[in-house]
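Morning!

This is the sequence you dropped in the shared folder:
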Amino acid sequence: MLRRFFFYESSEYESWAYYNFCGKKYELPILLAICHGLRTSEILGLKWEDYDGVQLHIQRALVDEGLEDSTKADASDRFVVLCDRAKELIDALKVLH
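The structure's back. Tokens below.
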């Protein structure tokens, strides 16, 4: 069976995520995965101190049975500059916590 793959610009992914998940419970993790390329384990491993208001420091992952570990590879320890919508969502969550 022939598979078709479609490639989109980053802004198109962001628009798709916004349209389909805006205001929903999983909007932020889906935005982080689709628009910023974070793995599920990296999203689960995030802590408040990883966010400086502009970017996230990806330095740990939550793996099997909730054990915290370093990222998958040394190169995975990185800084990710966030889109405006992701910053808005994180800032709103930070106020609640």
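Headline: The chain has a mean pLDDT of 81.

More detail when I'm at my desk.
O.
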